[in-house]
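Support request, please re-run this one:
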Amino acid sequence: MAEFRVVALSETGASLAMDMPMAVGSRCDLSLNLAQRVVDLAGRVAYVKPPESGEGPYLVGVDFEGVDELDAGLLGSFLEEERRRSP
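Re-run finished. Output below.
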């Protein structure tokens, strides 16, 4: 399992910072810890951007696929709470 940091998150996908790139079109499974709840999501890599300065993490865009109702609800609740906190 590759380590990653979530840069952006939505109901339909995520942008991840990773030390190693993934192949565009490849499937991936993600476990996200959202406010003390773990949500397991499957997705497909939509894009990979190399590090801007030649060093640093790759930016990997993942589109979620087949999200079940429970996980979609948990993700939606988390995002709604985060939106309320943001100015």
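The radius of gyration is 13 Å. Strands lie at 5-9, 13-18, 27-34, 37-49, 58-65.
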